[in-house]
Design goal:
The complex is a heterodimer.
Chain A lengths: L7 H6 L1 H16 L11 H20 L10 E2 L4 E2 L2 H27 L5 H19 L3 H19 L6 H32 L4 H7 L3 H4 L2 H17 L8 H8 L2 H26 L4 H24 L4 H22 L2 H27 E3 L2 E2 L9 H4 L1 H15 L5 H15 L3 H27 L6 E3 L3 H16 L4 H10 L5
Antiparallel strand pairs in A: 1-2, 3-4, 3-5
Helix pairs in contact in A: 2-3, 2-5, 3-4, 3-5, 4-5, 4-12, 4-15, 4-20, 5-6, 5-12, 6-7, 6-12, 7-10, 7-11, 8-12, 10-13, 11-12, 11-14, 12-14, 12-15, 13-14, 13-19, 14-15, 14-18, 14-19, 15-17, 15-18, 15-20, 15-21, 17-19, 17-20, 18-19
Chain B lengths: L1 H21 L3 H21 L3 H25 L15 H20 L13 H9 L1 H10 L3 H22 L4
The chains are: A mainly alpha, B mainly alpha.
Chain lengths: 489, 171
């Protein structure tokens, strides 16, 4: 309690978040001066520079780390470990791709405002605190910062009714989930008497405390709230509407980064704080995982709106990723982390492809828009095939490796039935992924649909397509990185 | 004595909340909400958390309720009586709620022996009672909880800019 509350090492540990906050404030202040708002290049460049600076800060600016529990800052509020850094890099790379893919869309919708980048950067700060927080209070504040920024982004197109509706639904249901989350935390605090994750872990070492009914109610509510945040069935109801109604570049960002942040938070809370009571939550999550992938895939089968189809596909992918959490082993955590990274690239690619197409100059999201894409642009159709194969889990793509790792981890931990269900689900999902492929190569192109010309968007597509295939070759260093960042100690 | 006071105040909290959601007149609903908020403040006093109680009264029963009343009066809510709120979902909702209540009841009373004694007071709570609430909370906010405190400030900035962005006529 005495002495200076922060030291230089605390600020070093927080440097990526500080960079992002400064960048966000700079954008906000700069946009108020003169004709800066009319400049379309300035703010995306500033946002991209901020994200890249934060990325450099994560990779080279943080103190050397080995594993979880390795170091902490701000009186134990912030964990400095490889696990947090891995997710920070994942969010920042996704954000850089999303910023590159967004510009043209916002220009065409004449909604290119600096606030877009401000909210994206503040959402990133929230996500990084969710992944790096070592105390329930910090994690919750980070979660709220992320959620609030994302609500505004979902309703970003203010003149669009669907965007408004999506934002309102997301806001109300998200507020409800946050309420459940805080209630769960209060019950956990009532039993453990501390809010730090390590402290809860130590308190639950006491068998009497670990079997307390209040703790069990708290834990169930916690799983419900976390399930909501990763859009697990039956807490997924917000996801299809929010993902479909949101502006496409926002969907691209939140379906990858927000989901990964929710997983980062979920795994840190469950594996660090609630490790002594693994038995109480792993079966619960197994049921969620099965329901999520099955429902997501079955619902996606009948969709003719491509955004809605990919939204249900995102739900199904959350189900696969949950499998590694259910396994509860070091291998399971590593598998989920790898899966989320692979999912980030293939999903950003698939959503960017929707951004590439416009019908009579307007936003479009129908499956038939992809008709004849193979004749019109062989490169674009080829890249889309790669993304679809990867999402379906077909070799030689990173999506295949991701599924291979999570299924392997589940079998290894004695959840063979879940892995079998996952494999069956992957087979089902190929049906609707191939519907897009059939449209691209077997149907005649329509004159109404045209391809957008934008260098940053094409670069995003090229980069994600390259990683989707070549990522397999460099799997080993990523897997090593992921393995070294395990939370189990 | 403390226990009796707790039950009476809690009953007021719950009753106020029920009347709030069930009342058809918006102004009445807001007044019931004040009752519930003030009773929650009384619960905090019972717990010797004077600072939190004062904040509860000032911010919630005071500021927030005034905002609510402004909205109720400025927005025309004349047709609110005719809106169908429940969409015939009251039956499944009631069944689910009964199941949930039964589950929580089963966990709490079915296994009363396993219920821990009132949790020991943590260091922070002891310090707050001995050295005064406001000082302790202030000290903790600027030492142990400095990081969440700073992030909360960014959160408020986002809420403000977000509200302006969504509501302003011309961006």
């Amino acid at each position: 309690m005495n002495g200076s509350p922060i030291s230089a090492s605390d600020l070093v540990a927080l440097n990526p978040e500080i960079t992002l906050t400064l960048g966000a404030c700079l954008i906000l202040v700069w946009s108020a001066f003169g004709k800066a708002r009319e400049n379309r290049r300035l703010f995306p460049s500033l946002a991209l520079a901020t994200v890249l600076a934060a990325l450099a800060g994560v990779l080279y600016g943080l103190p050397p780390q080995i594993a979880a529990g390795d170091g902490s800052a701000f009186a134990g509020q912030l964990a400095v470990d490889t696990y947090g850094s891995f997710f920070a890099v994942l969010f920042l790379v996704t954000a850089a791709l999303a910023i590159a893919a967004s510009g043209k869309f916002l220009d065409d919708e004449s909604a290119h405002h600096p606030e877009y980048y401000f909210f994206m950067l503040t959402a990133l700060v929230g996500m990084m605190i969710m992944a790096r927080g070592a105390d329930l209070i910090s994690i919750f504040v980070g979660l709220e910062l992320q959620a609030l920024s994302v609500y505004v982004l979902v309703g970003y197109l203010r003149a669009d009714r669907r965007s408004n509706e999506a934002a309102l639904k997301y806001f109300i249901l998200g507020g409800l989930a946050s309420g459940i989350f805080v209630y769960a935390l209060s019950l956990v605090y009532a039993v453990a008497g501390v809010t730090s994750l390590d402290g809860i872990r130590m308190a639950l070492g006491d068998a009497e405390m670990a079997s307390s009914p209040i703790l069990i109610i708290g834990l169930i509510l916690l799983v419900v709230a976390l399930g909501f945040k990763v859009a697990a069935v039956p807490f997924h109801l917000w996801a299809p509407d929010a993902y479909t109604g949101a502006p496409t570049p926002v969907t691209l960002f939140i379906s990858v980064a927000s989901t990964a942040a929710a997983f980062a938070m979920m795994m840190r809370i469950l594996f660090v704080a609630f490790a002594p009571v693994t038995g109480s939550w792993s079966a619960l999550l197994a049921v969620l995982s099965l329901a999520t992938m099955t429902f997501g895939n079955v619902a996606a089968l009948s969709q003719d709106n491509i955004k809605r189809m990919l939204a249900y596909s995102s739900i199904a992918h959350a189900g696969y990723a949950l499998m590694g959490v259910v396994a509860g082993t070091e291998r399971g955590i590593a598998a989920t982390m790898y899966y989320l990274a692979a999912y980030a690239f293939m999903n950003v690619g698939a959503w960017s492809m929707i951004l590439l197409l416009r019908r009579q100059g307007l936003v479009t999201d129908r499956l038939e828009d992809f008709s004849g894409l193979g004749q019109r642009s062989g490169w674009a159709a080829g890249a889309m095939i790669l993304f679809l194969l990867s999402l379906g889990g077909i070799p030689p793509t990173i999506g295949f490796l991701g599924k291979w790792y999570v299924f392997g981890a589940a079998i290894d931990a004695g959840w063979a039935w879940l892995a079998v269900a996952g494999a069956l689900n992957a087979a089902v999902s190929m049906y609707y992924y191939l519907r897009i492929a059939v449209a691209m190569y077997m149907r005649e192109p329509s004159d109404e649909v045209s391809l957008v010309r934008s260098l940053p968007l094409n670069l995003t597509l090229a980069l994600t397509a390259a990683v989707t295939v070549l990522g397999v070759l460099w799997a080993t260093p990523i897997v090593d990185w992921v393995r070294s960042s395990t939370l189990i100690f | 004595m403390e226990l009796i006071a707790f039950y009476i105040i809690s009953a007021v909290v719950v009753l106020g909340a029920i009347l709030m959601v069930s009342s058809r007149n918006m102004v009445h609903a807001v007044v019931y909400m004040v009752v519930s908020f003030i009773a929650v403040g009384a619960l905090f006093i019972l717990l010797q958390a004077e600072f939190v109680a004062a904040v509860q009264i000032l911010v919630y029963a005071g500021g927030i309720v005034v905002l609510f009343l402004f909205v109720v009066m400025l927005v025309n809510l004349g047709d609110v009586h005719r809106v169908e709120y429940l969409h015939k979902q009251w039956l499944p909702a009631s069944v689910m709620m009964l199941v949930l209540t039964a589950e929580i009841g089963f966990l709490l009373w079915g296994d009363a022996a396993a219920l821990p004694a009132a949790p020991e007071r943590t260091d922070a709570v002891l310090r707050a009672v001995d050295h005064g609430n406001t000082e302790t909370i202030g000290q903790m906010l600027y030492t142990d909880y400095l990081l969440p405190f700073e992030i909360a400030s960014l959160l408020l900035l986002v809420a403000m800019i977000g509200g302006i962005y969504l509501a302003k006529k011309r961006v």
